[in-house]
Design the sequence.
């Protein structure tokens, strides 16, 4: 049986196999086009989600960094801290700092030192006539040098003693006689302190 050819456009003869092949090719092209469109759409969705996730992570990281910076801020010292009373806040080693202090005086007698009137300071130094030194809080290590206006002609003196009432920004300057200690009285002064890093 002879197969009938069908004339197509421009007079081109098309047999049934050619027509079927064209239909299949068209169907395949449509399917591929749909697949590409779906893949492209999913890719765009994934890119959008990824961008949103990155933005969210960046925001969270920034918030965490800000929180860390806030927590990392140093705590302020109390009102009685020496650092709050620094007039010269320089902390470089070898430089003098000026600290506002209340300065009283004492001598080695029993009235001033009570049971500790044995002529030996808390640092173990044996007191001699003419000595000049100070009793200070444990914040200042033994050997710390200080310059106190009106005491020992403004020359540096060392911390060699402690005192029961000497806390914070309180100092006791030493005099060998009780009369000299009474004459000193109570003075509020800017005391120059030479920083030390030794154990107290």
Sequence:
């Amino acid at each position: 049986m002879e197969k009938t050819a069908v004339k197509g456009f421009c007079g081109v003869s098309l047999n049934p196999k050619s027509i079927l092949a064209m239909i299949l090719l068209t169907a395949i092209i449509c399917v591929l086009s749909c697949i590409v469109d779906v893949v492209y759409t999913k890719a765009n969705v994934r890119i959008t989600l990824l961008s949103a996730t990155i933005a969210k992570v960046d925001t969270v990281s920034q918030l965490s960094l800000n929180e860390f910076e806030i927590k990392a801020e140093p705590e302020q010292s109390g009102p009685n801290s020496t650092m709050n009373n620094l007039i010269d806040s320089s902390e470089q080693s070898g430089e003098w700092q000026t600290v506002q202090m209340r300065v009283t005086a004492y001598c080695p007698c029993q009235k001033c030192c009570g049971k500790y009137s044995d002529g030996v300071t808390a640092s173990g130094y044996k007191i001699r006539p003419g000595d000049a030194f100070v009793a200070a809080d444990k914040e200042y290590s033994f050997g710390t040098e200080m310059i106190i206006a009106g005491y020992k002609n403004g020359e540096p003196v060392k911390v060699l003693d402690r005192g029961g009432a000497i806390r914070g920004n309180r100092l006791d300057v030493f005099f060998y006689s009780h009369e000299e200690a009474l004459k000193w009285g109570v003075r509020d002064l800017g005391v120059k302190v030479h920083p030390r890093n030794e154990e107290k």
